[in-house]
Design brief:
alpha/beta; single chain; about 20% strand
Length: about 725
């Protein structure tokens, strides 16, 4: 059944869930992937975040995450401004300031990561080196104490985040950095750093709370950890495996932890006998180097599926790229993100979700050629590397075959589950001499997100030539910012009418870029580049101000024209959005706020329904209306539709355009129109291109419409004249 038809069925059939009244906890969130970090869409991510969310779901807690730097998080925790802080190692000073639970959430150790040009193989090699250390961290104090025992002097480079530590090394402001092995394994490749064999300071990781507060919360965390740590298939181990790791004590023999602790004690106590001590240090370093090689082998494979993980993938992909250059063949990277996998986890549980991933892996391995490289990035993301292609047509053919494999059902006991996938493709070589494996993966990731935006269950090919054009010349963020400063952007307006009465009910403001070299550019040429960027909000405020100023001009010349304005979810969720909208309306007192309508995409509104609906209600109190754009393309439930205070639903033009030929699209239109009537919402159809489109819409009960069959977008100066001469088709009034 097509995905769009499934969407409508979900809209019509899903029952609103009951609402609980959870206890609210403020939790600090800083950047230390993969333990905790902020994802690309601003969402909290990481193994410690998922573990806390799992407990919170069972306890009925409501978690409110507060981004902050490491030191700032600790200060807020001490001041009681936060209720919990993940990823806190215990030391005597922190025991005086905070409370902790008993069972550790993770065990960890620290490691030195060096610049490739630096020779650092033992503690003695740190003599005179600049080492980036996180201020206030246990690594900082432990490294100083240990090296003082060996009479090794180094130059600390204080930083406020581990990313800043690695960046300092990459930019040659430091020779090495110390970080926990989870972060180091996750990020050192992004900065071009190299692991050293220096491993030190075993540590246990906890959730911390302000002293004397949240002790009941800590007790409940202990309650789950005590039980989950004893169960190999518990939610705890499932979360750890999903992030490509496991509890360190299962990897490292007990004598190694004792050895590391002994080295720390020896470094503090022994200050004489430097020759003997140096020999012992070298011996211990060799032992740790051997251990690290063993850990490196274990760290190269995904624990759930047995596939290569991102570390091994990058290494093998680089080798395959070299072979492609030598053999003068093409290589294709396909990045797969499963559609609907979260719903399977929510409905059947994470155990079933894990079994589905394993089943898909077996299915792909049995059907794909052995020369193809199959790897798991984590979560529900996979990569297939296809070497030895003759041309791009062969690669696209293989991508279609891969998409067919994704659609095959997987049998798990009595269940038969089926998913689809959004696939991003990129080819190599691309004409650039110094392209790296990580860059290819980023390109495939960009193409995958484009596939998701265009309706999922599809694939998109990354356009390397256009990407170089964007990066090198015109469409970079800096060029768009310059265009905004130099007033190169303009607004066009597309009329919206009542088909039956002929009344012009308003216009939609549509941004265009009057590029000095490339001419008038449509939004698709530049808006995707600013998505989720600060420039997104800057462009949005420009559109708001320009549209309101134009409304004032029309008002002064005797034309009252309601205007709808597109607002991105990123812009809408800016902390000062409501205040700035109020200021703009105050600056144009002649405008009736009811004539201003804000349009937001249905799919983006669903990403954070609670926050978006709160902002919408605040704007509604100002008198401003809302419309849900591209309605019918998302996967909302009746609950979401009820919670989003939008008075108007805009039916996506893809349904309207094909309604005359596609019975399913016609059925979707009828379902959406009935749904709007049931919820007492108005409905407007986009994409009306012919008289017959208008006839069919009127038969279905939809009177409001816009599209090329009515009017194309036009400059503001042409709107009054168009309104003056507009007449609806006689057949629509029959």
């Amino acid at each position: 059944m097509p995905a769009r038809w499934m969407a409508v069925l979900l809209l019509l059939l899903m029952v609103p869930p009951s609402q609980a009244q959870p206890r609210e906890l403020r939790v600090g969130l800083y950047e230390n992937p993969p333990k905790l970090f902020i994802g690309p869409r601003g969402e909290p991510r990481g193994m410690l975040i998922e573990l806390l969310d799992e407990i919170a779901q069972r306890e009925g807690w409501s978690i409110e995450y507060h981004p902050c730097s490491w030191l700032n998080c600790l200060e807020q925790l001490a001041a009681g401004q936060l209720d919990l802080m993940p990823d806190v190692a215990i030391n005597p000073e922190r025991l005086q300031r905070f409370d902790f639970h008993t069972y550790p959430a993770l065990n960890s150790w620290s490691q030195i990561y060096r610049h490739p040009d630096q020779h650092i193989e033992s503690l003695l090699d740190l003599q005179g080196k600049r080492v980036a250390v996180l201020q206030g961290s246990v690594q900082d104090a432990a490294l100083r104490q240990l090296l003082a025992g060996f009479e090794v002097e180094f130059y600390p480079v204080p930083v406020v985040s581990l990313d800043q530590a690695f960046r300092a090394v990459a930019e040659r402001r430091a020779d090495a950095a110390i970080a926990n092995y989870q972060f180091g394994g996750y990020r050192h490749g992004d900065y071009g750093l190299v692991e050293s064999p220096i491993v030190l300071m075993p540590a246990r990781i906890f959730y911390g709370a302000p002293q004397g507060q949240q002790r009941d919360v800590l007790a409940r965390i202990d309650f789950y950890l005590e039980r989950w740590l004893a169960e190999p298939n518990s939610p705890y181990y499932q979360i750890i495996r999903r992030w490509g790791g496991q509890r360190p004590e299962t990897l490292v023999p007990g004598f190694v932890w004792q050895l590391l602790a002994a080295l720390v004690v020896l470094g503090v106590v022994l200050t004489g006998g430097m020759l003997l001590l140096r020999l012992q240090v070298k011996k211990r370093t060799r032992e740790l180097a051997a251990l690290n090689r063993h850990l490196e082998h274990l760290a190269h494979y995904d624990l759930l599926t047995g596939l290569p993980n991102p570390i091994l993938l990058a290494d093998r992909l680089q080798s395959l790229m070299q072979q492609a250059n030598e053999n003068q063949t093409l290589l294709l990277v396909a990045l797969i993100d499963l559609d609907g996998f979260k719903q399977i986890n929510d409905r059947h549980g994470t155990d079933v979700g894990d079994q589905l991933l394993i089943g898909l892996t077996h299915q792909w391995r049995s059907c794909l050629p052995e020369k193809y490289l199959l790897a798991r990035l984590g979560g529900d993301e996979f990569v297939v590397v296809m070497p030895g292609l003759k041309n791009q047509e062969e690669g696209v053919y293989q991508a279609r075959y891969l998409q067919q494999l994704l659609e095959r059902p997987v049998t798990l006991g009595e269940r038969e589950l089926q998913v689809s996938g959004s696939i991003g493709l990129c080819f190599y070589p691309q004409g650039e001499e110094h392209i790296e494996a990580e860059q290819l993966l980023r390109q495939a990731d960009q193409a995958m997100y484009l596939a998701k935006q265009t309706g999922k269950h599809s694939f998109q090919v990354f356009d390397a030539e256009w990407d170089r054009h964007i990066r090198g010349q015109h469409e970079s963020l800096e060029r768009i910012r310059l265009g905004l400063n130099q007033e190169e952007f303009v607004l066009f307006y597309q009329p919206k009418v009542n088909l039956r009465t002929g009344q012009v009910v308003g216009v939609e403001a549509l941004i265009r870029w009057q590029h000095p070299e490339r001419g008038l550019l449509a939004p698709g040429a530049f808006l995707p580049l600013v998505a989720e960027q600060p420039l997104d909000a800057a462009l949005g405020y420009w559109v708001l101000e320009t549209a309101l100023r134009q409304m004032s001009h029309w008002q002064a010349t005797g034309h009252s024209v309601p205007v709808s304005i597109n607002i991105s979810a990123h812009h809408l969720q800016q902390p000062d959005f409501v205040a700035r909208l109020q200021l703009l309306l105050d600056n144009h007192p002649q405008i009736n706020p009811a004539d201003v309508e804000l349009e937001i995409l249905e799919t983006s509104a669903l990403e954070d329904v609670q926050e978006v609906s709160a902002v919408m209600r605040a704007c509604s109190r100002l008198g401003v209306g809302f419309a849900l754009d591209d309605f019918g393309t998302g996967y909302s439930s009746l609950t979401y539709l009820r919670r989003l205070p939008a008075q108007l639903l805009k039916i996506d033009q893809s349904f309207v355009r094909d309604m005359l030929q596609d019975e399913e699209d016609l059925a979707i239109l009828e379902g959406v129109i009935r749904l709007a009537a049931a919820f007492r919402r108005q409905v407007i159809a986009e994409g009306v291109e012919t008289l017959q489109h208008g006839n069919e819409l009127l038969k279905l009960g939809c009177e409001l419409a816009q599209g090329y069959g009515i009017a194309r977008p036009m400059p503001a100066a042409e709107i009054p004249e168009w309104i003056k001469h507009w007449q609806q088709a006689p057949v629509w009034t029959a």
